[in-house]
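dude i think i finally got it to work??
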Amino acid sequence: MSALPQGLKPISFHPDDMVAGGFLNDVDVEIESAIFTTEPPPEYGEAGMFCKMSLKELHSGDITEQWLSCGKVALDNFTVGAEGRILLPSGGRSGLVKTSKFGIFMESLAGKGFPRPLCQDMQNMVGLQFHVMQIPSKAPGAGMSAAKSDKQRTDMVCDRIIKLPGEKAKRGAKTTPAAASAPTPAAASAPTPAAVSDNGDYATMALEQITAALVANSNTLPIKVVRAKVYGSMKSAPTDTRNAVVKLVTDPAWLESQGLLVDDANVTLVVTE
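look at this
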């Protein structure tokens, strides 16, 4: 064996010395940080706007950096503000592209119940726990170099939400591979079993309504006021739908099951700092 250059040490290829790669699939993760940035990942050949997240695997504790393209047009139409937490308009467009990597991810996340009012500040993503999956891409992402092999490109999506930011951990919840692959009585991406069976999609609507009401009122409201706020915002909805949603948002047990803080008089939204 020839002598090594001075000061260099061979890289260990023992699994314990390896680091997490950039491809997470079929695992439970938590978002440890999330920002908008113009810093591109290594596989991008062009400038662009990206969402950069640090994802921690709940089972192993490994950290993976994940970039999601916001689309080529985002760089020309938006500016990063508040140290990466928000995007501000600087061009002619008013919204991000749904078919971008970030758009596809957020569409999957919203479809699993992530509240719309939390989608204006990336800090509201920190602490979110979800089961990540990779699905085949319809086309290469914006700015991606041409594939150098026959390997299928994929998009990262949320398969189910385990815990919303600030939400209490579900009792008996486990984050092991076995638990991730097995069905659970109450999936964390959905309301409690009673809410699902008795109210269908009303629980998702109720969570959106109560979150919006709380965010608009410094994250806390008297329970008596919640009824009026939600009733007023849903005045154009069908009567049965409105009544079912109002019933949920004024039920202390249901509110607590969604991770909200409830005392004798108030309900409070917990937002991570």
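Residues 202-215 form the longest helix (14 residues).
im so relieved honestly
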